[in-house]
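Field reference: "sequence" (input) and "structure" (output). Example, Glutamate 5-kinase 1:
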Amino acid sequence: MKSFDIELVGKIGSMALIRKAEHDIDYNVFSRIGRELQPGMIWVSSGAVEIGRLDYIKRTGRELEGPKDNIMTDYSAQGQAILMEEYRRYIPKAYSVRQFLVEHTHFNDAEKRKNIYEALMRCVEQKAIPIVNYNDAVSFEANRCWELEQLRFSGHERVVECIDNDETASVISTLVHARYLLIFTSADGIYLDPNNPATLVERVEGKDEEELIAAIDELQSHCIGASRSGAGGAKAKLEFIKEPVRQGTTVMIASPRYSIKEVLTGNCPRTVFQIR
């Protein structure tokens, strides 16, 4: 029987936090997630850049112009404060809320990984909810690519890139040895045909880690495209979850239209990856 340090690592993408037609935050999603978070859970949340963009447009009536890296930095810095404000608004008042802004360098260095692990473990003891996001405000693309190239050149066996928060959530899940990894996405799970919701794959299982990874490899062959520019898509998600799966974590991919409890108990559509 495997033991786990953390009950759940969850992740939600940017567009799941937005009412796209109204160009505004979806407060219902923040409310639904926030009221369910409790000590022993770690929440990885995208959304700072998009929320910062919407807030800037509301205040000025226009979008920022200039180099893409500068725009991402400025929107992210503006959106982070709002993102944390909304989580604090809906997470039960009995719990503290703590922000963790991480970068790829933190996971490619043993001492920094240890520091993150210990800080996340203290959150459980101190009844605090960690909200994690990639630190877009200071980690611009050109610099990140150079740093990753240097890590590969120096002989790192496995380089963590954190190219999106699906990978960040998977890396954190592996770090803290979570029982569950929940990835909220714009779909109800993984489809054999992304244009046909009837092809939802409900379960991907194996008798051991090796058989389960082989089943994930097979499923990846059916995955194409992504929901938006900059997103990794289903194929990338499946690649990222392999490491948590290897250590016995049960992975679930579902829509944020449903509560965390509904997903964990199987009372909604979802795709589950687990060892039988």
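Residues 226-231 have pLDDT under 50 and may be disordered.
The chain has one domain: 6-275.
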